[in-house]
From TrEMBL:
It comes from the Bacteria. The lineage of its organism: Bacteria, Pseudomonadati, Pseudomonadota, Betaproteobacteria, Neisseriales. The keyword Hydrolase does not apply. Catalyzes cyclization of the linear tetrapyrrole, hydroxymethylbilane, to the macrocyclic uroporphyrinogen III. The keyword Lyase applies. It catalyses: hydroxymethylbilane = uroporphyrinogen III + H2O. Its EC number is 4.2.1.75. Pfam families: HEM4. This is Uroporphyrinogen-III synthase. GO terms for molecular function: uroporphyrinogen-III synthase activity. Belongs to the uroporphyrinogen-III synthase family. Pathway: Porphyrin-containing compound metabolism; protoporphyrin-IX biosynthesis; coproporphyrinogen-III from 5-aminolevulinate: step 3/4. One of its GO terms (biological process) is protoporphyrinogen IX biosynthetic process. Keywords: Lyase, Porphyrin biosynthesis.
């Protein structure tokens, strides 16, 4: 029997990033509703991105804040990625995407998959005078760029894409809640905020009573502030999220035997 058979789970990632996780959940027997809470679009001004890519060889290190940043950059890269230009990423999803795009030299945290974890890596320490480019979406945390500049890096910040709110409305959200939801996978604090801002009244109460699976404590803290009462912290990456979901739904069955 498939572990997640009979369960209906929501995957709220941007559509460009959801396929692998959706396939894993399907393989485990779950019914999956893709419900993107963020949409990825080109930046409002493409000129800085295009200029940085035309001169990509001048940099000593390129930092990518997400798989979306990697996709946005490599889609517009005018030539091959320079072989001697290392790439730094914050988590296993970005690491896998970078390797799939042909990058060989990748810096990624060993365990703590966030900006703080990346900053602990040995190769991120001695940056004085080095030219770095950081590709990210609009907005976001300033911790990483601030820390890189404090370490003496000559940092160029590039908005490679912009995140937009979901395209569905309250009626669609309510109809999906009525159909049933055994768990919601949230991959960013911003996505959680969009979801709860969209809801109201009974829909808000229904959302607050659902189970949320999140890969980072910061997302859990956001959900708690929004009134969510059941939150399961999983490991990072698609396999880590799947493992956490399977543990949650199988543990009670094992204990009841």
């Amino acid at each position: 029997m498939q572990i997640l058979s009979g369960l209906r789970l929501w995957v709220t990632r941007p559509s460009q990033q959801a396929a692998d996780l959706v396939n894993l959940l399907h393989a485990a027997g779950a019914e999956v509703l893709p419900l993107p809470l963020l949409e990825i679009a080109p930046p409002a001004d493409l000129a800085p991105l295009q200029f940085a890519l035309a001169n990509i060889g001048q940099f000593d290190l390129a930092v990518f804040i997400s798989p979306s940043a990697l996709d946005a950059v490599f889609a517009r890269l005018p030539g091959p990625w320079p072989q001697n230009l290392p790439v730094a990423v914050v988590g296993p999803g970005s690491e896998r995407r970078a390797r799939a795009l042909g990058v060989q030299d990748i810096i990624c945290p060993a365990s703590q998959f966030d900006s703080e974890g990346l900053l602990q890596e040995a190769r991120m320490q001695s940056l004085a005078g080095k030219k770095l480019v950081l590709f990210r979406g609009n907005g976001g945390r300033e911790l990483l760029p601030s820390a890189l500049q404090e370490r003496g890096a000559l940092l160029t910040l590039i908005t490679a894409y912009q995140r937009q709110p979901p395209r569905f409305d309250l009626d669609h959200l309510t109809s999906q809640l009525d159909r049933g939801c055994d768990g919601i996978i949230i991959s960013s604090s911003e996505a959680a905020q969009h979801l709860f801002q969209l809801a109201g009244g009974e829909a808000l109460q229904a959302l607050q009573s659902r189970i949320y699976f999140v890969p980072h404590p910061r997302i859990a803290q956001t959900l708690i502030a929004l009134g969510a009462k059941q939150i399961e912290l999983t490991d990072a990456g698609d396999s880590g999220i799947l493992h956490g979901i399977c543990l949650h739904f199988t543990k009670p069955r094992q204990e009841s035997r």
